[in-house]
Design goal:
Number of helices: 10
Number of strands: 0
Number of domains: 2
Structural class: mainly alpha
Radius of gyration: 21 Å
Oligomer: single chain
Shape: flat
CATH architecture of the largest domain: Orthogonal Bundle
């Protein structure tokens, strides 16, 4: 089994930052494995929470490792645990949203409860909300969009964003505040428009 591959790797004497640096320089998978292995249980727990099935969660642990192979070579990562947590959560959410994950079951009309339709409506509302948010994100000025994505999606702090983008801390804060306000205005308009239809 592939999980055994990770467990067979001897624990490294390098720090996380050294492993990241060496992996980025060499692309050697044993370095990436040594970095990932201590967090496999954490990643499995995240995946189990979202996917709710052990086999799917195990598959996701391996799929996330495969995602790390290219991503870690292109992303500046200072807090690996936090970055990995976000990556795992986003992977699971994408799995849940993919059509392959949707299951169809025969339903007995007499057994369908009102709560089922309420739950389904809630899911559909969330999907619509996400779609509107994505649309509104595209309307932002390029700098605002980039700062918002770094702050909310990649969970970077103002200081990290300033370093990554070479933009002054005050301007980073200003772009994020303005972007957030513009997003809220755009979302409010879309919600108002949909309720008027």
């Amino acid at each position: 089994m592939v999980l055994a591959f990770f467990k067979s790797i001897s624990s490294s004497s390098y720090s996380e930052q050294e492993l990241i640096r060496l992996y980025r320089e060499t692309g050697k998978l044993d370095l990436l494995s040594a970095l990932y292995q201590p967090y496999m249980e954490l990643v499995f727990g995240i995946c189990l929470k979202y996917l709710e099935e052990r086999e799917e969660a195990k598959d996701a642990v391996l799929a996330i490792f495969e995602e790390l192979v290219p991503k870690l070579r292109h992303h500046e990562v200072e807090n690996f645990k936090g970055w990995l947590y976000t990556l795992a959560k986003n992977h699971c959410l994408m799995q849940l949203r993919s059509s392959k994950h949707l299951k169809t079951n025969e339903l007995d009309p007499e057994r369908v409860q009102l709560t089922d339709s309420v739950h389904l409506n809630g899911i559909m509302e969330k999907e619509e909300h996400l779609a509107k948010l994505q649309d509104c994100l595209q309307t932002l000025a390029a700098e605002q969009k980039r700062m918002i994505e770094l702050f909310y999606l990649q969970q970077k702090c103002y200081k990290e964003i300033a370093v990554i983008t070479s933009v002054e801390w005050n301007k980073v804060r200003s772009h994020i505040q303005n972007g957030r306000r513009n997003l809220k205005n755009c979302m409010d308009k879309k919600i108002q428009h949909s309720t008027n239809e």
